[in-house]
Amino acid sequence: MLLAIDAGNTNVTIGIFDGPRIITRWRLRTVHDQTPDEWGIKLRSLFALEGLPLEKISGIIAATVVPPLESSLTGMARRYFPVEPMFVTGHTETGLNILYDNPREVGADRIVNAVAAIAKYGGPCIVVDLGTAITFDAVSANSEYLGGIICPGIGMSIQGLFTRTARLPMVDFRDPEKLIGTNTVVSMQSGLYYGTICMIDGIVERMIAEMGKDTKSVATGGQASLITKGSRFVKIADEDLTLEGLRMIWERNRQ
């Protein structure tokens, strides 16, 4: 079995694969200074809850955009499994031709998403990842990573409204009851929801105009299903896109 870890700035998503099939997944809060032993204790608890023995894991692959996590994940993998983990970088063999000016600048999660999207949906393709930041990644039909766009994430917008105003409350991100709010909470939820969707649709529409009308769009991340519900251009929500990309890269490199 394969342990796949997607470590972002806000959340860590963990998946267990038995061959091509994902058995289970967990989402944890990112703790930047977590020690290898703390990682090990958490994973042992999660495995025990699912009735999965640690010794069944024969490989570990990770994509992280938080540099301090790499050393702690490496220590955890060596001590508790024990295997040598593989970390995805801009120089990992993925089958993608990365056309970024400096491939090292491309986040590992963006590379992984592009690999999974081109394999599952074909190209040209746009991946919208709703994480700490909202990223748009363009992949050609020839498996070329063309580049992308980075925007502030939904959580940043919510936090900004709350911390930078005197009387606006903290709200959750949801499909509002109505477009025109008649109280402060619904007005904020409407602004966040439709503002995010309109921003995404506006960018995706311009990318499709540049990449061609046959370009597909897929969303992943915590709020993907909410976005596809209201979007005009992004209709596919794929919760496991990043984890599946990690599995594909592992299969490509494990020899």
End-to-end gap: 15 Å
Residue-averaged pLDDT: 92
- Which structural class should the secondary elements be placed in? alpha/beta
| Annotation field: number of helices | 7
Number of domains: 2
Q: Main beta sheet: strand number and arrangement?
A: 6 strands, mixed
Shape: globular
Which stretches are low in confidence, meaning pLDDT under 50 for 5 or more residues running? Answer: none
**How many strands appear in the DSSP assignment?**
11
Could you name the CATH topology of the largest domain? Nucleotidyltransferase, domain 5
> Which architecture of the largest domain does the CATH hierarchy give at level 2?
2-Layer Sandwich
Helix content: 25-40%
% residues in beta strands: 15-25%
Polypeptide structure, described:
- The protein has helices at about 35-50, 65-80, 110-120, 155-165, 185-210, 225-230, 240-255; strands at about 1-5, 10-20, 20-30, 60-65, 85, 95-100, 125-130, 135-140, 145-150, 215-220, 235.
- It has about 260 residues and is an alpha/beta fold.
- Helix 1 crosses helix 2 and helix 3 (about 110-120) packs across helix 7 (about 240-255).
- The chain is globular and about 55 Å long.
- The mean pLDDT is about 90.
- Homodimer.
- One of its GO terms (molecular function) is pantothenate kinase activity.
